[in-house]
Amino acid sequence: MKDLKLPKKRFRPEIEGVRTIATLLIAVYHIWFGKVSGGIDVFFVLSGYLMTLSILSRIEKNGSVNFADYFLHLTRRLFPQAIIIIIFTGVCAVIFLPQFEWGEIIAHMMASTFYYENWRLALDSVDYLARDNSASPFQHFWSLSVQGQFYIIWPILLAAVYGLARKVWKTPVRKTLLGSLIVVFVCSIAYSIYQTNINQPFAYFHSFTRMWEFSVGGIFALLSPYLFFTKRISIALGWLGLLIICFTGIIVPVSTVFPGYLALLPISGVLLILIASESITVIGVNRFLAVKPLLYLGSLTYGIYLWHWPLLIFYRSYMEIETVPVMDGILLLLVTILLSIVTTKLVEKPVLKMDREQNKGNLVVVLTAMFVLTCASIFTISAYIEKATASSELISDTDYPGAQSVLYETNTPTDVDPIPPPSRIKTDLPAFYEDLECQSVNRTEVRKCSYGVLEDADFTIALVGGSHSGHWFPALEELAEEMNFTIDLYSHDGCRFTDEDPSGSLTEECLPWNENLIDVLTENPPDLVFTTSTVNKHPEVPQGFINQWKKLEGITTVFAIRDNPRMKKVVPVCLEQAEDPLECAVTRDQGVSKEVPWEVTEGIPSNVFFADLTDYFCDDTTCYPVIGNVIVYRDDNHLTAEYSKTLAPALKIPLQQAFDSLDKTSAR
């Protein structure tokens, strides 16, 4: 049976030109527009096209893939510049980024070095606590991680198909490979569309949702000898393809809809250019893409991509701005290109020039040394971060009373740094977050975890809702033994104890989870249901809250605590940058409503006991970011566990009143 033809081997300058255009678009969109261009998708298609041809020609020539040589060649191409920039980024991160961001540095360095940064970001995207993380200076390594995984999978796939076609199925190799790549394409794009619809942020970084883009390049490589048009049509197709690539980021909100079917837009652009370039024309796009400046920059695209993102992140952090002025952006781009020239010529090219046959041993030594250097850098930076925050380990309760300074009207020392230290504030969470089994986020099933006094407790408190209920857990945990109660935790971050979501801000699973939760609480009623009574500074109690409380009327008592004030800035970052903590404060009117919401809301059932601890966040005029030398917020609205603990004595007062009311009810 006749097999498919392969395209003739030749240098394709238009590919270098497309690489340059795609890389510059990525940088330009990041720097000036704060958007995603779709240039990454262009690279994925080109990688699939080139790698399929390269690996297939090796297999057909030698009958197999020499994986040792293959991975050695791959490593010497990818490692040198990446290693230098990972180390540079790690060092500069502790220099230019606020300590608040330090906790993420090591994790992202590790993920970038070992090519799983895309999975790190994918998991962060479904982690409610990590969704508001600032952009990491390593974030751009996600695409290199996907490509690195593709470079491992592709030769294995092609070698397996070759072996099966030759020795088992006795079918033409290239036709069999084409069929296999079509299967990969169909399965991957179907999963990509599905996952993009249900969880786009997770899908964006997922390896398998991106595999169809590489398979498109492979399919085109096998079919390209049969795709030929007249010169007039080729000219039109080529320029149309370039326009599509350039304007995808303007036409489509790439970061929120890719990698579903809309990713076909930039992919069609690069395919049109490749098809058009089969016809050599004077005014075709291939002539434009082959001009010397684009060809020269094409040899620097790897370095440009690697350098532009960390430089942009450090610039924004140092200048404390989000929008980059035009001239500053041009300077950033020029510095990016200059650094790319330096690392390409001084780092990458000397390694590439090492002969794989004659200097294989030396090449292995050099690459191993680079890898060891990266690991040593990770260890050193980690040790530095630990040392820089070690001074905050030994603390005295009298120096850090937190909310108790308000309760007991005590003065606090002014010569100590507030706690938690900025580098650890992101992880200053309620203890239950350490147990993943206690989390119901992304689930409708109700999960219960019990804490406090687990045997012979006088009372049981059900702590229900999302993170704004959950951040009261440390205070409750402090009181549990003293007041002899059990804490039954029913947590669903990104949710509230409600049966309505008028703003559409809750998770998709929240309302079904609430329905199931009512069933659980009704079947086995606790003594108190602890939840929030308000949202932000909204002037009234939400109707959805009231509806849930009514469902428990005659069954149990609801302990409804007023929501804490929200701040205007991310408090830990603001405190690092401000000369005076008051720069990070808000007025009381900005933080909470003037009226007490339940006093102006109708229809509240009789089984609700309200608590208002606003005075432990604000005085008559101001809501503070630091109280009693303890940082109140770990972002702009969630309490630090450290501050929550200091609220325990204040919370005890209304909680005891609620317990007393239960005793009186029982007596009657």
Molecular structure report:
Helices cover 56% and strands 6% of the residues. It has helices at 13-33, 39-62, 67-96, 102-113, 117-126, 141-168, 173-205, 211-223, 231-251, 254-257, 264-276, 285-289, 292-298, 301-319, 326-352, 360-389, 404-407, 467-470, 473-483, 510-523, 543-551, 571-577, 588-591, 641-646, 648-667, and strands at residues 449-452, 459-465, 485-491, 528-532, 557-561, 586-587, 608-611, 622-623, 626-627, 630-631. Strands 1-3-2-4-5-7 form a six-stranded mixed sheet. The longest helix has 33 residues, at 173-205. It is elongated and about 90 Å long. The mean pLDDT is 91.
Topology (SSEs and partners):
Elements: H1 13-33, H2 39-62, H3 67-96, H4 102-113, H5 117-126, H6 141-168, H7 173-205, H8 211-223, H9 231-251, H10 254-257, H11 264-276, H12 285-289, H13 292-298, H14 301-319, H15 326-352, H16 360-389, H17 404-407, E1 449-452, E2 459-465, H18 467-470, H19 473-483, E3 485-491, H20 510-523, E4 528-532, H21 543-551, E5 557-561, H22 571-577, E6 586-587, H23 588-591, E7 608-611, E8 622-623, E9 626-627, E10 630-631, H24 641-646, H25 648-667
Helix pairs in contact: 1-2, 1-9, 1-13, 1-14, 1-15, 2-6, 2-8, 2-11, 3-4, 3-14, 3-15, 3-16, 4-5, 4-16, 5-6, 5-7, 6-7, 7-8, 9-11, 14-15, 19-25
